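Hi U.,

Before I forget, here's the chain from the pilot set. I'm dumping it here mostly so it's searchable later in email.
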Amino acid sequence: MVLGEVVGKVWADRILAPLQGRRLVLVRVRPDGPDLVAVDPLNVGVGTTVLVVTDEAAAAVAGESTVDAAVVALIADPDATDSAPTTA
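Structure:
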């Protein structure tokens, strides 16, 4: 699994039949990873932090063996800490 930010939508001129009708997004892997194209069954927006699975896990999520990256979770605030705020 990788954590990343959705930086755009991907529009294909031609696409395999099993992928037709699937939403594709461009995800920039954090912190300095490569961009990847992922199937987006959650309909997330640009600027959203997401969790992406790859390889066999992505194929299982999408139900299609040609898929090698899929968005599986929306991360509300990746920089939040678990500790309560303190006051002076």
